[in-house]
Amino acid sequence: MSNLSSLPDAIRSHVHDGDCVALEGFTHLIPFAAGHEIIRQEKRALTLVRMTPDVIFDQMIGMGCAKRLVFSWGGNPGVGSLHRLRDAVEKNFPHPIEIDERSHAAMTVSYTAAAAGLPCGILRGFLGSDLAAHNPNIKFIDCPFTGERLAAVPAIRPDVAIIHAQRADRAGNVHLWGIVGVQKEIALAAKKVIVTVEQIVDDLNAPSNACVLPAWVVTAVCHVPGGAAPSYAHGYYDRDNSFYLAWDEVSRDRQNFQRWMRANVMDGMPINGDA
Amino acid sequence: MSNLSSLPDAIRSHVHDGDCVALEGFTHLIPFAAGHEIIRQEKRALTLVRMTPDVIFDQMIGMGCAKRLVFSWGGNPGVGSLHRLRDAVEKNFPHPIEIDERSHAAMTVSYTAAAAGLPCGILRGFLGSDLAAHNPNIKFIDCPFTGERLAAVPAIRPDVAIIHAQRADRAGNVHLWGIVGVQKEIALAAKKVIVTVEQIVDDLNAPSNACVLPAWVVTAVCHVPGGAAPSYAHGYYDRDNSFYLAWDEVSRDRQNFQRWMRANVMDGMPINGDA
Amino acid sequence: MVATPSEVMTIVAARMLREATVCFVGIGIPSKAANLARLTHAPNAVLIYESGTIGTRPSVLPLSIGDGELAMTADTVVSTSEVFSYWLQGGRVEVGFLGAAQVDRYANLNSTVIGNYKSPKVRLPGAGGAPEIAAQAKETLIIINHDRRKLVEKVDFITSAGYLDGGDSRERAGLKTGGPTAVITDLCVLRPESLTRELVVTQLHPGITRQMVAEATGWEVRFAEDLIETEVPSDVELSTLRELERQTILAHSNEAADRTPFIRTDPTEEVARP
Amino acid sequence: MVATPSEVMTIVAARMLREATVCFVGIGIPSKAANLARLTHAPNAVLIYESGTIGTRPSVLPLSIGDGELAMTADTVVSTSEVFSYWLQGGRVEVGFLGAAQVDRYANLNSTVIGNYKSPKVRLPGAGGAPEIAAQAKETLIIINHDRRKLVEKVDFITSAGYLDGGDSRERAGLKTGGPTAVITDLCVLRPESLTRELVVTQLHPGITRQMVAEATGWEVRFAEDLIETEVPSDVELSTLRELERQTILAHSNEAADRTPFIRTDPTEEVARP
Prior knowledge:
The complex is a heterotetramer, with two copies of chain A and two copies of chain C. By secondary structure, chain A is of the alpha/beta class. Chain A is 30% helix and 23% strand. Chain A has two domains: 4-100 and 158-264, Glutaconate Coenzyme A-transferase (3-Layer(aba) Sandwich), CATH 3.40.1080.10; 104-154, no CATH class. Chain A contains nine helices and 13 strands. In chain A, helix 2 (32-40) packs parallel to helix 3, helix 3 packs across helix 4 and helix 5 packs across helix 7 (183-189). The N and C termini of chain A lie far apart (40 Å). By secondary structure, chain C is an alpha/beta fold. Chain C has one domain: Glutaconate Coenzyme A-transferase (3-Layer(aba) Sandwich), CATH 3.40.1080.10. Chain C has helices spanning 5-15, 29-39, 68-72, 80-89, 130-136, 169-172, 210-216, 235-257, 267-271, and strands at residues 22-25, 46-49, 53-54, 76-77, 95-98, 102-104, 109-110, 113-115, 120-123, 139-143, 151-152, 180-184, 188-192, 199-204, 222-229. Chain C is globular, with a radius of gyration of 19 Å. The chains are: A alpha/beta, C alpha/beta. The interface between B and C is large, with 70 and 65 residues.
């Protein structure tokens, strides 16, 4: 009954062409290894969902996995642009992608609404912003008690959510800590959940009220040490800031990017930070 | 700049006749001592808010503090009725009280809406239940994306929320754990927050992602060891189940109840379980 | 060993809990039945209590919904807000186990008032989590003592929807889940008939006659054509139940004897699973 | 010591942060300014980052919004969902510190596109948390390098509302908070005029002339009648800022040198505050 699996098996079994796939992790615990496996398995026409589509989505978009992007901030944090994302949006390379663009707050509301089984969520948002005019997924309702105008966004219920966590036990219960972002929300919002972890332990021994996902809500747990690099895993390894800086240069040029992906991802090599 | 205070001072300064006052704690960490102080200070015409108005609200209602009750389940857990609450509702003793009755889920939505600064919250609720017909604070809206009918409830933003927690540090940061109920939500929903604690420590040393209320959101922290008795404080003392059983007998009769309250609460004696 | 009517009710309810099912449990007999199931045929049943304890494995029965034992043995303890939103409303609960003061012919539940709402004859504790459990669990099981004042033609107040007026009225009211699949009493089991959704007796407990049930029921109760007799509680079921109750009394009386507040300094240690 | 224009901008921004204020901080110069304030005149400023770290006191500057240093020094670390709902939308933030690609005459911010939205000339990173920070913090401070392409007559896209078309148009759009109270650049400080809400220069940094500002601004910028000169950065301000930057470079270059994944076994220990 364990949900333990290899990463290639988990991606093969649960991620299908055309799926809506969310990869979450707010700077911390970004599931890079899982994204690379999706690239290697050449999944296509995915709707990719992520608040902060940073380097991992730049790579997936550049390698042609994405048909559509749902997001709120797409940049290389602390560095600048995502060149592959920009190339897709500005120049349709490798092919055009659709964009469903919101704000951070609205994304979290869409995730929590889905986790809570609601069709939509409400927030005080988008007043005076041009975003609402460009996105039919942002509507407004009136509070039935005060009449106040409130923004509403539809729940985001991905086919698969993928997150990285520090630890799981042998039964597949998962524990993450530190900056936990929206990982619990997206895991509970999605139809299936794949979790890569740094470590498998005998007993989670998690503190009270810690961020724990019980095994029975997790579709597959994959033991992938270093699976968040070049982002970081609190308690395990630090963020490889030099990689993010180097990525700017690697990703600027189409051929350079493809060469790097072939050498570092497609051949199955683990990413080692030497961009 | 510390928010440390004595309990009598905190109640005197922050709870006023006519206020809307929430006391929360889901079986665990019920702020009994604070409730008793409100009774001793003879606060009147309060709107009392609590998901589970158990013995503490029975005492406050029986002593004439309440004008209105907002709640979802009013019983003596595992024992039966609240006789003082019933006497007020059924026989207007000591005076009539208004009732605003919801479900647990709806109460939590009202708290989280207030904490999140929204005028209302939505849930899949009350379909087929007679509660909606008897409570104008339950309305329905249509999801602007799917058309689904959803219940809406107004935010509950008490003038004062009172909770009990295990520990605070000297700066007034509060840490609670175990069954945390809706304490964080109600604390952030209210205009002012009073927290009684078992212990003041030098350093909270709370685990990552623990339930912590920073000092700057807490109006007053009061050191009241045993302040949750006869309910329990995880890590400090157990629930006094015999008290809850004995309460049934004490509270059944008006005079018996008043005699007990005079002896055990009005004279300032700490509650000691020997009902 | 011969089981009492109440023990039969608990054991029959326990039997209905499938292995590895996710169950939202009320305090009292539902909690007893769910834990009995876990200790017998369903060791991997996931028990959720509205206090926010998910996947609890108490060694003794909790006396209240927020008992410390529930927190200490849980896979995770979340806020009450989260348990109702992400876990119940999120559609993760397969079986909701409910009690009530009254159940009617169409399995509607009343735990609000006897008599008129504005000036009630008896003010009951109220809804608690029940309306949403009844609406959002994939199915519900109802446990109630069999008595004419409890099994009534029509409840005074619908706190939690069963099949409303019968037929497809539940679906027409917008409820998307299955609704009550069984009412388990100390005399028998009633289940909704497929089209009318009226509760009919499908199963009589050992030694109980049709007449006894008919007399204890507040409407002209009907009996299924394929009425069966409840299997007698096994020695394992009964001894497990009695041992659970014995341990529970023992544990809680020890607690009462040691009520002096005491200080422990490490919250992490306190709440970690044993 | 003589401050560079960028240092002056950071120091002027830091000065605007009142002691004990609650500040929602973006990464980059806002983060640098907020921490400089904390290390100088506002030791009890409460810094909130959108990664969910509340009350952080980093000893070195984070390079990303979700840096581990932020989590380790925070009073509490909550989900990103909670930080936007209970903390920002809940009205607990007094000052929002924002950057942007463009700011216009009425302090509207663009961080979405240059050119047309559907086929942009430059696709910028997007909104992130900015629309709600701009709408829900009691006031916002904007930090931006002074340049004609950045301070423009009208932004190509309003990502985050300032005063919209000026006058009371912000209020009319339903925004209930105060809006931008200052735009701090490397040349000057601009503030909204009370009725028109047009940004006017209220303060020139040392050595900066009206002409320099006028030439670097994309509209016919006006100067306040009581235009003042920025106080020269003090030695304490400047040395604190430079020491912070030095420690930051040092810390992050050490990290880079030690990138091998390592295993620690106690998560509690790891994340507890030092």
